[in-house]
Design a protein that fits this description.
Length: 365
């Protein structure tokens, strides 16, 4: 079996793994990143927060993100409507004094909206230029944590070929159902399912509705559906969390294409608008924090360490911030600028952040 060595192996090329790789490369560590599939095909679930924009700005990615993102109206504003093109029931958002603070508190642009897939594409284009190696179609099969190294057995998904990677450290950014976490015997003891819902990603030309809303985020409540309607690009790309409808089963249930389109028409409020459905997923929005974020030389980051439903848009952002916290510390230790004891600060700092984001969501539910 072929064997080679890298300073850091990052498992998972979702937004957290890619961002972690990017931060490591920025601080002079050449990581290897692997993913069992091509994560660029995943739908744009999450959007970046102001703090995440600041972190990307600090590694020189702001111009590239500005090119792909869009200005989505005033941030943290929500509109409640009978339907996307229907009557407005309520508007809510930050009081003007806080909005003014948002405008001046950061060097990053608080209006800029960048979606998960755009972040992933920008990082993917940049990472190899900074010395990172990325391999898709490559799955972590086994991991052995030693005192001096981590030994990972990985396999090419298409051909079945296997090889071994020896790394000084491994970052498990392999998502909510983390296989690394399971292999290390780390559990998520208090996982609580908040709701079961269906999320649709689709194309529809609704005209300049976001201008009328003054935001990209609309909540819809009528007698046929309770859902969100989120603009992904200010034009024709949308997602909708379909949270409730008459007769919705308790258990997790897939929706047929026809039923999804029927519900989306109820969300939009116009049955004549053509809908091109990209994807619809049934999923459980849950809270949960792993019993440990670390086992020796292996660290969990992102959804593998904590999940916090999708409300509030904190999942991806908290995860990218884990990666930032971990990357500069790993770089400092690998370059000999700090003792490995520095790495002990990762878990308490990021556990506090995960707890805070879960608490925020619980208080708002
Ligand atoms: C519908 C929905 C809407 C959301 N909206 C928001 C939002 O608005 N804002 C927000 O911040 N968050 C949001 N989230 C949460 C956000 O999508 C996740 O927090 C984020 O994707 C987590 O990123 P990650 O990189 O940790 O994991 P993932 O994106 O799940 O990536 C994990 C990667 O690991 C790979 N992998 C898994 N196992 C292996 C293995 N053994 N070997 C190799 N590769 C492996 C997978 O293929 C995958 O590509 C939402 C989530 C959902 C479901």
């Amino acid at each position: 079996m072929r064997t080679f060595s890298v300073p850091v192996l990052v498992v998972g090329c979702g937004p957290v793994g890619l961002a972690t790789g990017m931060f490591l490369a920025h601080w002079g560590v050449r990581p290897m990143l692997i993913d069992k599939r091509d994560p660029m095909s995943a739908p744009p679930r999450a959007g970046v927060s102001l703090r995440t924009l600041e972190l990307f700005r600090s590694v020189g990615l702001e111009p590239a993100l500005r090119e792909v993102g869009w200005e989505g109206g005033r941030p943290m504003q929500t509109i409640l409507k009978e339907a996307g093109v229907g009557a407005t029931l309520r508007r809510s958002g930050l009081p003007p004094r806080y909005t003014r603070r948002l405008e001046t508190c950061s060097p990053a642009d608080h209006r800029l909206l960048v979606m998960q897939d755009q972040v992933q594409r920008v990082v993917m284009a940049e990472l190899p230029r900074r010395g990172g190696q990325v391999r898709f179609d490559t799955r972590l099969l086994d991991v052995e944590v030693g005192d001096e190294h981590v030994r990972a057995r990985v396999g090419h998904v298409s051909t079945g070929e296997q090889w071994e990677i020896t790394a000084d450290y491994l970052v498990a950014a392999d998502g909510a159902n983390s296989e690394v976490r399971e292999r290390l015997g780390i559990t998520v003891p208090d996982r609580e399912v908040l709701t079961r819902l269906n999320t649709a990603f689709f194309r529809a030309d609704l005209g300049p509705v976001t201008e009328e809303w003054g935001t990209h985020f609309c909540l819809v409540h009528n007698d046929r559906v309770y859902a969100t309607l989120l603009s992904k690009n200010g034009r024709d790309q949308w997602s909708s969390h379909i949270m409730d409808y008459p007769g919705k089963p308790e258990e997790l249930t897939e929706l047929s294409t026809d039923r999804t389109i029927e519900l989306l028409h109820a969300v939009i409020g116009d049955t004549t608008i053509p809908i091109e459905l990209h994807e619809v997923n049934a999923w459980e929005a849950a809270y949960g924090i792993a019993s440990s974020f670390r086992k020796g030389r292996v660290f969990l980051a992102g959804d593998s360490a904590h999940v916090q439903s999708s409300a509030g848009g904190l999942g991806m952002n908290t995860g990218i911030q884990d990666g930032h916290n971990l990357a500069w510390k790993l770089a400092a230790v690998l370059h000999g600028h700090a003792s490995p004891a520095l790495l002990n600060t990762y878990e308490p700092e990021r556990r506090a952040a995960a707890r805070a984001s879960v608490a925020l969501l619980r208080s708002g539910r």
